[in-house]
Batch of 3 targets.
Target 1
Amino acid sequence: MTEPNTLFSKDGFLFVKNKDKNYSLYFEIENKNIILEKIIDFHLVKLIYDLNPEIYEKVNLKIMNENEATINLLLKHLYEELGLPQRFTYVHIIKEISKDNITFKSNTIKSERPEGMPNEAELMPIKNMIIKCDIVTQHKIKFTCNIIFEDTMIIPSIVEKIVGFVSFKIFSRVKQFIEKVSV
């Protein structure tokens, strides 16, 4: 097994390439004013996207029950100048809770196209994504986000570093937002 390759590291965020088409993002959130595990739910998933309107054009979360949801996201066409297509994701998410962690497992829905997606936008070829929220204390959670792309996804090395930076922006805003909440 090869060693992970660090693509981006800043302010407690680490984005690594584990192997071809397989990436991980690590960070922690701490807030002594709230019990964090109580806010780790599908609404937090939507908050991630709502705090980043310059990256996401459209967000549609459909919660089926407390452990299952679908979400479709249309990314803004950020890299049109590089010749890359506009992308969207459409995933089914399962939330699993255990004593020490909360895990969100996402799989791409390929059987249908969500309403309102532009015809030219392409489905992001994500094989699966797992976000594991390890409960360190009631006020501190360690996040690990693993994403594996389909074999068809071609990711130039320059794009990998951009993805690392964009991921940092996205999750640092969420981290800052949660860490500033007081009850």
Note: Residues 17-180 form a domain with the Alpha-D-Glucose-1,6-Bisphosphate; Chain A, domain 4 fold (CATH 3.30.530.20).
Target 2
Amino acid sequence: MAAGEFTFGIEEEFFLVHPRSRNAVARVPKRLVRTCRQRLGRHVTHELLQSQVEISSPVFSDADEALAEMRRLRRVVAEVAEASGYRLMAAGTHPLAAWTEQRHTDKPRYQALVGDFQILGRRNLMCGLHVHVGTPPGVDRVELMNRAMPWLSLFLALSTSSPFWNRRDTGLLSYRQAAYDEWPRAGIPDFFADEAEYQAFCALLIRAGAIQDPSFLWWAIRPSHRYPTLELRITDSCTRVEHALALAALFRCLLRALVRMPELGRARGAGRRRVIDENRWRAKRWGVDAHFIVEPGGALESCRGVLDALRALVAEDVRALGCARALEPLDAMLARGTSAHEQLARYHAGLAAGGSRREALRHVVDWLIEASVPK
């Protein structure tokens, strides 16, 4: 298995923020994305709401090169945003934004989504991190997806960055995942036998008029419709670019390990999907402080324990892919918490200092803006 067979790409969604109010920008001039594209090509695009922008990376085969390029992409988009009077911010939700104040992007796909899903589309004020990993020829992506699913909750726990919604502390570390549970065709996918069965299901939904194509399946993990990749979608947008690359590298190593060990993760009981969903709840509620149900046997294991077990499992793949340096931030994410922990700490510090809830949230946004753009 050559490293080139596990190339990868990253999609990051961001909020555009007004520097005075710290709120999400309701209307963004079209020239902003046009200018980004003049400097970066088609690596920058609109999202459903005007307050959002997305960076889509080139195809990478080296983790260190990927980190350097993702840093550059963030810096350039931040520069263009600042020239237009805005700031760039990476988080799963915006602490100060209210969905009722947002406007969707004027594109046919987004108009159709809002028309179809109504309030669900209008309140889709959330940003995620999506990681694509190419698989070797002859590997069935759906069979690989089935075997990767027990680790999904770990990736969510390590990415949590959405503790606030509608200007309130939700009590969750990833409210974004809770909000997506309202959407049809979201959450944990079913265990399809293989790509043929998966494509037959997609064809059924297309014939029924439920979806236009398989990209309208918004599951936590899926075979990409556009690329020969398996796409991780459960993760919140990571405030620090190094954290995003660490999760991308870990997902890449996991898939290589699953290809290298064909029997790994193949056995499963009737309740496996429900256990995965229970663990997903624990991740969105407690993040890296969660304890997960581990099968077989149903023992509880800490997030650190699950991560340590996975890192031991993929040690050979880390060496083969040269990902050791990219994975280093994982230890700090466990020890100090994710973006969600930092946001909550700053929020409660603001309240303890006598500030109002809105003032405390402004301090959170200030930190998010600072931490989102690499120095």
Note: The chain is about 45% helix and 15% strand.
Target 3
Amino acid sequence: MKSLTHYLTESERTYNFRLKIANMIEDEVMDKLETALEKYDMKSLSKPKKTPIQEHPMDFQTLSNAEVYIMDAELQYPATAYQLYEYISQTVGIPANQLVVINKDHPEEIAREEALKEEGDEYVTKLDDAEYTDATKHDVAKVFGDEYNANMLKELETRKYEFAKKD
């Protein structure tokens, strides 16, 4: 027969949460966040992933033109998303409207992750590509240039316009 301690060690669980913070994360804030999560016996905290600046970021509809930093936290002490949200907001000093804490196994988060997997590779900004290597994927002559302008003018000549008569 197994002892109680054996059952307790077998039933060790971890609690996974996704933290989303709008706007800039400084090293000081990250240090405070890590220190605050030690209360819940933090097992791991992923490196922040930054999203592109969006007019109205997902989960932050009241903010405009903000980038969102997303981190995954794995805790060994049980907590709810709301508890962590309140605790981090008060302890770390992140404004409540710039923080979202959600269970990683929440149906909306699972759907978002699946949608990202379907899209494929991670998003790469076009502005960072000085050589514009993506141009080979498109027929550049069809999009702009002398040939495009000539085709546009020919198309405009073939259109017939009707004008209303003045009474």
Note: DSSP finds six helices and five strands in the chain.
